[in-house]
Amino acid sequence: MIKTGLFGGTFNPVHFGHLRSAYEVQAKFSLDSVCFIPAAIPPHKQPSSVADAKDRLEMIRMAVSDHPGFSVSDVELKRSGPSYTIDTVRHFMALRTEPTLLYLIVGFDAFLEINTWKSFKELFRLVPFIVMTRPGLSCRDSGDKLKALDDFLNAEISGGYSYSSQDSCYIHETNHPVYVFEVSRLDISSTKIRELTGKGESACFLTPEKVEFFIKSRGLYR
What we know:
Layout: E1 2-9, H1 16-28, E2 33-38, H2 53-64, E3 70-72, H3 75-78, H4 85-95, E4 100-107, H5 108-111, H6 120-126, E5 129-133, H7 139-157, E6 162-164, E7 169-171, E8 178-182, H8 190-198, H9 209-218
Parallel strand pairs: 1-2, 1-4, 2-3, 4-5, 5-8
Antiparallel strand pairs: 6-7, 7-8
Helix pairs in contact: 2-9, 4-6
């Protein structure tokens, strides 16, 4: 059984926070690969604040080139119109020629907005989720996050979700599991990199050197 993680997003630009999180998820869930999938036209972003999709794709290719467990897909760039996750999942399911288990990798905050995504309930019937959370919270805060996730799943997705502490996931009678996984907290964001670049300052050690050079050479985020 091949296990593949689908890691979508704007990646505007990709940075070490994305890469470290993907690495930790891959190790924890014994994934054969993690596929980075940049959105061509993010439905929830203002186009003016997002670099050209081809540039974002190229930056990801540079960032993952030295890691054999990472790959990049341009499937959302080849489709016209907004980049909907449901279409991407269906695409990867149709590609399977041997037994393959797909996981959808999503950050905690993005997951709590999944009820605004196209055909979001179908996603839960198609693939398991890996929801990434950040450490550094008190036990109370962690409990509050789990409660928020529990309430959200049962209210917005489908009643009947319950948390299995043994498997660190939410289980459901008909939907795939929703795993909760804590990744390292790196105080890095695409917003910070864009702000630094806009001021003519360096993003060194926030994103791979090749990516920083590409940003400068293309005049991105200025």
